[in-house]
Amino acid sequence: MNPARNPNGLSVLVGIQLMLPTAAFLALFFVWPTILIVSQSLLGEGGWLSQYTMFLSSAGYVRILLRTLVMAGLVSTLCLIIAYPYAYLMSQVRGNMLTVLMGVVLISFFTSVMVRSFAWIVVMQRNGIVDRLAQSLGFDSLVLRGSTLGVTIAMVQIMLPFMIFPLYSTMVGIDRRLNVASKSLGANGWTTFWRVYWPLSLPGVVSGWVIVFITSLGFYVIPGLVGSPQEQLLSQLIYTLINTVLNLPLASAASMLLLLMALAVVLPAMSRFDVAAGVTARAGQVNDTTDRRSAWLYVWAIVVGVALLLPSLVVIPLSFPGNASFAFPPTSWSTRWYERFFSSDEWFGALLASLQVAVITMVLAVVLSVSAALAIRRLPPSFRIVLRSFVMAPRIVPGIIIAIAIYGLFLSWGLTATTAGFVIAHTVLALPFSFIPIMTALEQFDTRLEQASASLGAGRTKTLFRVMLPLISPGLLTGGLFAFVISFDEVVVSLFISGTELRTLPVQMYRSVATDIDPTIAAASTMLLLLTMVLVIGSSMLSKKFQRAP
User: Fold this and answer.
1) What pTM was computed for the model?
2) Residue 417 — left, alpha, or beta (φ > 0 → left; ψ -120 to 50 → alpha)?
3) What pLDDT is stored for residue 371 in this prediction?
4) From the DSSP assignment, how many helices (H) and strands (E) are in the chain?
């Protein structure tokens, strides 16, 4: 008997076979470690719920839990307020203006979190840029490092691209003629916005807010470097419970409470909107009916653009000081920190390790994404939703939870501080980012070309490599770029699984800025900034080349 077939005549059995590699990978390195963490949280002499009782009975722990929840909500809301006008302007313009606005967001998005974190340390430290500016204006000393305000500002700046992308992706698909029709019926601008435009933009609003909220819940780097131990968030507490207190069951219970908070927000949102798909921006047609009364939008866009880019640029002069100092601007100049970077096994070895891990992760993530996308495309609609959500699941779980889950598994399997361990962990994190553009490209693929190839005698393998993959190459390029950058920039999971034998560049940068005053980190940050610009410009040029291709 022939296997069941979908309307395209493609075998469901083939789809199941194609899904197996990705499903097995996620089941083994994402689902199973999470189950182990759940089981760890239920251990204890006082019974299954003793760890949860211990955590919730501590006033200090509960304060940290509530502080984390409030911080994530505040950062998400501020990002929405700041990003909404910027994304709206992006959806209204075209040509060079759109390229500039999108380029600013992409550069900020791809710039290493460690680069931006180091930049904020310099900006907010005592005698830093903000402190000296406040004193020059006649105010008292203003040291934002170690304050809740400083952590909030830095987190909002880092999270903004995660809000802008889903907003733009939704707004670019809204028909501007609806606004014109509303105004022609007598509605003023505010009425048109609240009654017409805002409801249509809600999918992007909810998607962006949830993504930023989930990421902020498990954010570790900024609270750890810019914040204060007295105002720590739950991610810092979990790290301390594992690495200092050595209490894995209590850390697991804290992680499960964090996961429950995340699911309480994600599941209701997913029931109405496609939250996970809002990670990357969607290209679309831009209508000509641009609002001419939007001069303030351009001013707002300039302010947001400066806020996205300027903090990172301060690391460039800091890479040339004559002495070991983070003073801005440097009092003397030297290139010896670049010489130290390339001559040091500690720094240059970390760079080579990061490149090796990122390249392998990119290849593995793209292969698994293509396999999953081909499978989902062949399966009935009821299966597509479930499997698509399964592939995207690592995106909606706070990173600190994935970190301790993988750490516990790798400890028992001997995969900590190994290249294989880093590649596996980074692929789990990068897979959702590479999957979305590849899945989108396959959804736009004309199945008649596949049928024509088969009618000419080509087998499935030849059709895949000769017809399908060349035509979806822009999606492959984008997915590969996302996977490479996610791996190259990963800090939290890498902190858990690194060791003296193997350490990636972000981990080396984190440990350096946390313990030393070493301008080598500024030299590394400057080179990462240049790499980011090369990647963004190069991918933009390749994308335009693909678009011009017949």
Assistant:
1) 0.86
2) left
3) 93
4) 28, 0
